[in-house]
Design a protein that fits this description.
alpha+beta; BirA Bifunctional Protein, domain 2; SH3 type barrels; 21% helix; binds biotin
């Protein structure tokens, strides 16, 4: 099992920036983030009591698979609230986003940035509905949640190193939301509608449309049922 060193910063621009200067197997978490960033060039709002952390790993060959490894580690750490994972790595509770994950590479490192809304969540200006653990009657210290995530992540990495992506994929599918349901996938230049038919052995989203099956490697997913992201 990997052992991580944990560092705390009272305030920083983004823990992903701080992480660039840290050695592998270190995790940094912050009390405030002044320039938190999200996927697709979006911003990530901080909030007092929330977990904003970045975990530094050696850059693996298939870095994109760590979307699934990381999202599973978070989902397992808050399993008491029955979370679901929306492809590729958003964690939802009752259809609302509670955690986002941003993977970045820097030199020979993989940086896994994780934001979990524990005490607060943004009320406006979000593409998705949001929530926080507190809204569901549970709170946890950010540091305790981070150490649970690191423990699950260590276990997942070991499993991945020994057995490859297949068992991770199966477990991720257990947590996946919207399988068999109609979704819209927003790509940079178009939106495609189809049925979410799972993920393939490389983590690509399988979208079944009237005419064909498409394999999507990057995009934003929305459930089509009037209630977003359930
Ligand atoms: C997303 O869903 O768009 C990803 C959000 C990732 C947010 C976390 S908070 C800690 C780390 N530092 C950042 O600037 N972003 C990630």
């Amino acid at each position: 099992m990997k052992k991580f060193e944990i560092i705390f910063k009272e305030t920083c621009t983004s823990t992903n920036d701080v992480a660039k200067e840290l050695p592998v197997y270190t995790a940094v978490y912050a009390g405030r983030q002044t320039n938190g960033r999200g996927r697709m060039g979006r911003t990530w709002q901080d909030g007092q009591g929330n977990l904003m952390t970045s975990i530094v790993l050696p850059k693996p060959k298939q870095a994109h698979l760590f979307s699934f490894i990381a999202s599973l580690s978070v989902a397992q750490s808050i399993a008491f609230l029955s979370p679901r994972i929306k492809w590729p790595n958003d964690i939802l509770i009752e259809g609302k986003k509670v955690c986002g994950i941003l993977l970045e590479t820097h030199e020979d490192k993989l940086i896994i940035g994780i934001g979990v809304n524990i005490e607060n969540h943004p009320q406006t200006g979000m593409l998705y509905k949001t929530t926080c653990l507190k809204e569901h009657g549970r709170t946890v210290e950010a540091k305790k949640l981070l150490s649970d995530i690191l423990q699950n992540l260590s276990f997942m990495i070991e499993c991945f190193e020994k057995k490859g992506f297949a068992p991770i994929r199966l477990e991720w599918l257990e947590f996946a939301c919207g399988i068999g349901q109609p979704i819209t996938v927003n790509l940079p230049n178009q939106s495609i509608e189809g049925i979410f038919s799972g993920i393939n052995e490389n983590g690509a989203l399988i979208l079944t449309t009237k005419n064909q099956t498409q394999f999507i490697t990057a995009g934003d997913v929305f459930m089509i049922d009037g209630k977003k992201d359930e």
